[in-house]
Design goal:
With 67 residues, this protein is α+β, with helices and mostly antiparallel strands. It is 30% helix and 48% strand. A hairpin with a 2-residue loop joins strand 4 and strand 5.
């Protein structure tokens, strides 16, 4: 899986202690829904990942804690 992280996503991952491997697990195993018009949200354990798929690359926009 090809990933590209925004600076904001990297900062949020560092702040929340989320690794690249956990982001991949969230995308593969998490509960995913579409956020219109072109984003996806994958919820997994204690965080969610917001991303877009562009030319086969998962572009990670942010990583957020679940409420």
């Amino acid at each position: 899986m090809k990933l590209q992280f925004s600076l904001h996503a990297r900062e949020q991952m560092t702040e929340r202690g989320v690794s690249d491997a956990e982001v991949i697990r969230a995308i593969r195993r998490g509960s995913t829904y579409r956020q219109l018009p072109d984003k996806f949200v994958a919820m997994y354990t204690y965080f969610s990942v917001v991303y877009r798929i562009v030319d086969g690359t998962h572009r990670i926009i942010t990583v957020q804690p679940l409420p």
